[in-house]
Amino acid sequence: MKILLLGYGKMGKTIEQIALDRGHEIAGRIDINNRTDLESLGKSDVDVAIEFSSPEAAVDNIRDCLKRGWPVVCGTTGWLEHRTEIEELCRQTQGGFFYASNYSIGVNLFFRLNKILARFMKGYPSYHVSMTEIHHTEKKDAPSGTAITLAEGIIEQLPDKKRWINEAEDQSDAVSIESLREGTVPGTHLVRYDSDVDTIEIKHVAYSRQGFALGALTAGEWLVGKQGVFGMEDLLGESI
Ligand SMILES: NC(=O)C1=CN([C@@H]2O[C@H](COP(=O)(O)OP(=O)(O)OC[C@H]3O[C@@H](n4cnc5c(N)ncnc54)[C@H](OP(=O)(O)O)[C@@H]3O)[C@@H](O)[C@H]2O)C=CC1
Ligand SMILES: O=C(O)C1=N[C@H](C(=O)O)C[C@H](O)C1
C-alpha cells in the first residue's frame, strides 16, 4: 500500500516505522515546510493518506486529500467543529474518510468500559463523576480528543450531565475534565466516581505511541477501496 503521511512529527514517524515493517511504501512525507510537494502527486500515487498534524492544519489537509480522491485516515484532534463540513465533502467527492480520537485497541475497550460503568452509576446519584487526562507538554489541544469521547459516553448515560467543561472545578450539570501536561507522557485517562465513603476509578495508561500508530495503520489498510465516513466501531465491529 502506498501511504502519504500528512504530518511528519511524533505520530507520522511512528506510523512510518510500522508501515515499512509491514511492507508498505511511503508515497510522501508532508510537513508544514513542504506542503507544495502535494502538487507533484497524482491520484494513483497514493492509496491512503494518514493525517496526524495539528488542530489548525488538519481541515485543509483532509480537504486536499478528498479533492484528489485519496482516502484519509485522520487522527488529529481539536478540529471537530468542522466535522460536519468534512463529512459532507467526503460524500460529495464519493471519498473515504476515517476518524478516531484514539486508535489504540486498549482505549477503544476503555471507551466501552466507560459507557458500561456510566450506565451502572446512573442509579447511584451519590457518586460524583469527574475526569483527568495527562499528556506531554507539546500537546496543543485541551482537553484531549480521547477525554472528550469519554465525556460524551458519560453524558449519554447520566441524565444530569448535559455537557463537559475543561476545569477541575465542579458544576452540577457538567462532567469536569482536568487537563495536566507533564514531561513526555504519551496519554493517560482517568474516570472517577467519588462518594463520601469511597471512590471507583478506571484508568487507561499508554506506555508509548505504538498502539495509536498500529491502530491508525490498520484503519488505513481497512479503508482502501471503501467509500463513506467511518470510525473505530466500523473497523472493530462486534469484536469490541
Ligand atoms: N487519534 C489518535 O490516536 C492520536 C491522535 N494524536 C493527535 O495527532 C496530532 C499529531 O500528534 P503528534 O504527531 O504527537 O504531533 P507532532 O507535533 O509531533 O507532529 C505534528 C506534525 O505536523 C506538522 N504540521 C503542522 N502543520 C502542518 C501542515 N499544515 N501540514 C502538514 N503537517 C503539518 C508539524 O510540523 P511543525 O512541527 O513544523 O509544526 C509536526 O511535524 C495531534 O492532534 C494529537 O492530538 C496523537 C496521538 C494519537
Ligand atoms: O496528543 C497526543 O499525544 C494524543 N492525542 C490524542 C488525544 O487528544 O486524545 C490521543 C492520545 O491520547 C495522544
UniProtKB/TrEMBL annotation:
Gene Ontology annotations of biological process type: diaminopimelate biosynthetic process; lysine biosynthetic process via diaminopimelate
| List of residues binding NAD(+) | 75-77, 100-103
Where do the annotations place NADP(+) binding?
35
According to the UniProt entry, its GO molecular function terms are: 4-hydroxy-tetrahydrodipicolinate reductase; NAD binding; NADP binding; oxidoreductase activity, acting on CH or CH2 groups, NAD or NADP as acceptor
**What is annotated about its quaternary structure and interactions?**
Homotetramer.
The free-text function statement in the UniProt record for this protein reads: Catalyzes the conversion of 4-hydroxy-tetrahydrodipicolinate (HTPA) to tetrahydrodipicolinate.
Protein name (record): 4-hydroxy-tetrahydrodipicolinate reductase
| Gene, per the UniProt record | dapB
